Amino acid sequence: MRHGIRRSLLAAIVAAVVAGGGVAAVLVSHHGAQAPAGAAGAAPAASLDARPTVPELVQVRLDRAKQALQTAGFGHRTHGGGLLGVLDEGNWVVCRSRPAAGTHLDAGTKVELWVERQC
Question: Does residue 30 lie in a domain region?
């Protein structure tokens, strides 16, 4: 009998987490009680970080990397470029960026790019 209850509770927890309701939603429906404010897992899926994400820029030409950053809503700061600096952005490749691709940032944040002729 106990195993049946555990299995049904586990199945309900998995279903609620997949649906975005979290564990607190299962406890409310299972026990008929109110979940405490700020309970773990109580946040809906819509509250995930909606800030723009840094695109993958490594091994991308500088001109295209700058375009991708602009499209995502970010600024940039370029490091490198040799003695004369970057004269033709199509001739330089991003070898490193900070913060890393996939990082969520506020719009307008500057992403640092390190460029070379080839990585």
Answer: yes
Q: Quick one: average pLDDT of 87-113?
A: 96
pLDDT in tens, 77-92: 999 998 889 999 999 9
Would 76 be classed as within a structural domain? yes
User: How many structural domains are present in the chain?
Assistant: 2
Distance between CA 59 and CA 39 in Å, rounded? 43
**75 Cβ contact partners less than 8 Å away, ≥ 6 residues apart:** 69, 108, 109, 110, 111
Cα-trace Rg, the chain: 23
What's the predicted TM-score (pTM) here? 0.59
Rounded distance, CA 117 to CA 51, Å? 32
